[in-house]
User: Fold these one by one.
Assistant:
Number 1:
Amino acid sequence: MLDDWSVFWAFPAFLLCLYVLSIISVRLQGPKAPLVGLKSIFEPRLVGNFRFFKNSAAVISEGYSKAMLTGSSKEAFRFVRNDADMVVLPVSMVDEIKALPIEKANPTVAHAHNLLGSYTKMDLILHSNLHFRMIQTRLTPMLGSLTGPMEDEVKFALNEQFPSSEEWTKMKPYHTILGLVARTSARVFVGLPLCRNEKWLEISTQFTEQIFVSVCFMRLFPTWTHPILSKLMPSIWKGHSYIRQSQKLLVPEILRRKELMATDKLDRGTHDTLLSWMIECADASESDPNHLAHLEIVISLAAIHTSQMNAVHVLYDLCAHPDCLEEIRQEIREVGGEVDWQKTSYAQLRKLDSFMKESQRFNPPSMLSYHRVMQWRHVLSDGTILPKGAHICMPVNAIQMDPEVTTDPEVFDGLRYYKQRQNPGEGHLHQFATTEKNLLNFGHGRYACPGRFFASLEIKVILVRLIMNYDFKFLDGRGRPPNLRAHEFLFPNPDGELLVRFRGSDAESPF
């Protein structure tokens, strides 16, 4: 009888122990900084994590207003996720963190952690920075010569995927723009004819979708459950399957290109692609074809995710602000009428660039940025102690919505940054792809997103063609589709709809 009662009470006792340990870990572990996101001392980590999942903006705003705007003192605060105690630093620490070497504050470890790399196989980035090097040293310097192929692919993709009717037609921008971005990115990453291979387009888009489904779901549960969950989740299985499919598709092409490179017979169009540059520049530890294929799909995730979401947000916001749409059209006409259209023409589209930046301010891809995981203990200049293993970040959205940083932050002003660039000495600042202490969507400093210049150009190529050749508006009686939020991530609504029509004889794209 006693044994029966022992078994009966064992499970409740186990749960009680987990509850007590959770409360102790939240309150006693981690850096000494104000804790937000928990309403009571009795709330465990699981509750704080779920509250962050449901409304990360409110949790971060609470911390920002309490810890960062208390008198003249701006300090760090922290909140809990199931997988980490997140330390959110004030913007005054940007330069200090930027100066720390990667051996002390590692952004790559943070990115792999955020994407559950050990389960999604995104931890590949911990073992090779080949993609980072190639984007910095090959892709960005070559953007001028890659503009023509990108424009060519946008035209091809629009003929394949966009309505050609001059009557108003329903469209779901999330899915249509995803196809445009995937095709345009693939033209630069793998080249013709592979960029039009339907299997590759499926792999590069669906791998991204499965990664974010996995991350958003698994983060709801304690880390000790992740090894079990990862074996049971279809999105994990599919993600791994897409990696294998990418290797099956790309490895023969990689071997073919290696052979042609050895005899200097690879044509220039195929050579000037990210895949060929990686083959050419990989060191001995990076040159395995399966490794290169895996890396190619990881790069596609980053590129497609950023560009697609920004382009969709811009389309929604242009429909909400049609006065800006006409100003941007006129700007494109003027730039196109002055010189032959080329890569430098996009740099002259200051109003479009400003609108993209303002749209991103209201719709950041993440509420947090500038992530680092501390590899060694470090004491900040204000006395904040960052222990080894601490996950630090910056509240990018809260900073940009701070009246001390942005005038009238609640007002959407599509020409906000265009007007700022008119100020003496600021013509080169406030661009979509530039980083500043108060504008951290792409990070800042040496480890800022290396693909931001490519993303900026790609989005502009797509938008110029869409703006000049099509009209857009919301469905009657409807406004901007609400964004979706999960953890720190913000997504345009996949089910949002617009009405679109071809402008017919009024279509005037400069390319």
Note: The first strand starts at residue 77 and ends at 81.
Number 2:
Amino acid sequence: MMDDVKISIDTGAIISTRDFYNEVGKRYEDAFSHDAGLQRILERFLSLLSSNASVLDVGCGTGKPVSSMIAGSGRKPYGIDFSATMVELSKKQVPQGVFQCCNMLRYAPPSPSNFEGIIANLSLFGLSRAELTSMAHKFFQWIKPGGFLLIGVFGAEDCETKPEQWDADGECASRVSNIFMGHRVFMTLFTKSGWNKLLEGAGFTIAHTESDVFSPPAAAVCDDDPHYFVIGQKPSIA
């Protein structure tokens, strides 16, 4: 994974991404689990799936709100996260789910095309452009024909960048800075049209997009989140 560090704005100390998420644990949920825009798009996404669908939560965190909403809808949540602390919290808070501690880049589902839905909300920023392209194709492989993918990301045009951070095609920026839970983090971001093209290049049809700004509570010490949500569908087999 790219830029596997978080830098504390309070002390200047450097901490690995995994250790960072192990440390923030429940505080992350307290700051981000009440995002009304996320809850709305999750409701829309879940309405597209069958009532007994299996849904993979990529970067499941504490299990709230994503996996808990999947379970609350009667569907079966599966979650992966590379923070052992987050996975343990998910197991406790969403006992209906199946959760695994692993890196998404090395995850292998129980069987090909296993999930009717996949959700990756705010969990893709630490990847390089090449890794993001790889993950888009993996998502396509893991989803059943006719199934859906939801990604929650930021559009690069909604964040502060410098010309030298952009790739030559103007669709992706690297090392975009953001304050998150009192730490400065660096992200890889496509433009909104670039995210769409990423999924289309993997084989998805874009079914829905929407933008929403979430302002975390002041105690979280975070920048505002300019969310961009994309729902893609894998074509059905004729």
Note: The helical segments are 17-32, 36-46, 66-72, 84-93, 129-142, 192-202.
